[in-house]
């Protein structure tokens, strides 16, 4: 399944995922695969399991984190200033 992160509490190392009109899906840091925390609005892929606490997200992967192959030393537009005397 895929959805968006609704809330993330860094101090509790857990949060909630969007579930339309249904109950929130609980996600915990221990279930994150390719990241250490989540940001609100990020898209994630996960497996949904039913627990005594409700819906739980397992094997949670953060999506959309592609690394670009652009060179880091890309030439930037440099503002040209006329030579002069600074006072």
Characterise this structure.
The protein is built from no helices and 5 strands. By secondary structure, it is an all-beta fold. The protein has one domain: Nucleic acid-binding proteins (OB fold (Dihydrolipoamide Acetyltransferase, E2P), Beta Barrel). It has a 5-stranded mixed barrel. It is elongated, with a radius of gyration of 21 Å.
Q: What is CATH's topology name?
A: OB fold (Dihydrolipoamide Acetyltransferase, E2P)
Structural Rg? 21 Å
Mean pLDDT: 84
* Overall number of strands: 5
Sequence of secondary-structure elements: EEEEE
Q: How many H/I helical runs? A: 0
Strand-residue fraction? 35-45%
Report how far apart the termini are.
63 Å
Largest sheet: 5 strands, mixed, barrel
Parts with pLDDT < 50 across at least 5 consecutive residues: none
CATH class: Mainly Beta
Class by alpha and beta content: mainly beta
List the quaternary state of the chains.
single chain
CATH homology superfamily: Nucleic acid-binding proteins
Provide the helix percentage: under 10%
Shape-level CATH architecture:
Beta Barrel
Domain tally: 1
Shape from CA axes? elongated
């Amino acid at each position: 399944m895929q959805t968006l992160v609704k809330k993330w509490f860094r101090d509790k190392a857990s949060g909630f995922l969007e579930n339309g009109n249904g109950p929130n899906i609980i996600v915990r840091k221990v279930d994150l695969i390719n990241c250490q925390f989540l940001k609100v609005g990020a898209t994630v892929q996960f497996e949904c399991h039913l627990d005594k606490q409700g819906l739980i997200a397992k094997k949670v992967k953060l999506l959309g984190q592609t690394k670009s192959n652009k060179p880091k030393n890309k030439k930037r537009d440099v503002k040209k200033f006329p030579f002069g005397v600074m006072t």
